[in-house]
Amino acid sequence: MKTGIRCLLLMLLSVSDAYGQITYFADILGNGFKQATIVQPSDYEGSVTCTIVKKLTPEKSTKAVLYVHGFNDYFFQEEMAERFVSEGYNFYAVDLRKYGRSWLSNQKFNNVRDLSEYFADLDTTLAIIKSEGSEKILLSGHSLGGLVISLYADAKNGKELFDAVLLNSPLFDLPTKSGLKKTALPLIVKRAEKHPDMGIDAGLSPLYGESLHKDAHGEWSYSLGYKPHIAPPVNFGWIRAVHLAQVKVAQGLQIGKPVLVLHAAKSIDEKKWSDVMFTGDAVINVAQIDLQARNIVGQYSIQAVPGGMHDLILSRKAVRDEVYSTIINWAKRVVK
């Protein structure tokens, strides 16, 4: 126990030494949200940053949530932050390197060659949250973010700076047809070893994005520069990184903290716009989420959400109200 406390103090001191006093500025969301840019060590594309966004409770709290966004995404979900703040949680989000607020002109959007590249962003953000007074932390991730924090929780087993893990439709399966997985995927993964920057059009539909954004059929306002309806083409390195991460999930993850896995009750595959888009997951196969989540070694629960969309907290209001209720009731039991 004493050793763990010493390790935590050393990490907090190293954060202070490396970054000095964290300087926050008003965030693009306004409404009391603040952001800070953290400069990380350079990588194969050059300079790297991640961005912390936060909104604190009116009264001092020692509980916090850290939210990690998905692919072709960034943090914009003000309603989610307000829900957690109203329940007494300081709210933090991180725009991972090469996403949203953290994208730099020398970088390809969303680029990654190994999902462990994001671990430094999580290490830094969690240490900062601790240094700012939050003792208990719920680590939450959506889609790709859910896959990332699953691997992160496994890697940090026994050394966690968080107390529970929430997975919102984690990307435990590539959104590709089974035929492609059997033929093209192995070739791409192999070729990515020497040619990670070779690009490929993932052939994604704009319908999911249109179901979300207020200027199309949805109710949410966010930057289409940071989150376009169709994601920029990925490269072979990205496909390999995600595939290898999913293979690791299938082999089993050792997670030492309570895990809640939430996903839509059904997947949908619409070819043209209809209101069916509001009724299911239009991105990945929810049966695979359920199947692969059972490879977690530890305390976990899985729940399907009727009427849920891919990002459950962007579903229709009645559905997301139920999702928030489920999350908060679970968090009260495991984050004390």
Automatic annotation (TrEMBL):
| Coiled-coil segments on the chain, per record | none
List the InterPro entries hit by this protein, alphabetically.
AB_hydrolase_fold, Hydrolase_4, MAG_DAG_Lipase
Domain of life, per UniProt, equals Bacteria
Keyword list, A-Z = Hydrolase, Signal
Signal is among the record's keywords: yes
Transmembrane recorded as keyword: no
**Which stretch is the leader sequence?**
1-20
- Cross-referenced Gene3D superfamilies: alpha/beta hydrolase
Q: MF terms per GO, please?
A: hydrolase activity
Q: Where is the Serine aminopeptidase S33 domain?
A: 61-265
Identification of the protein by name: Alpha-beta hydrolase superfamily lysophospholipase
Q: Which organism is it from?
A: Dyadobacter arcticus
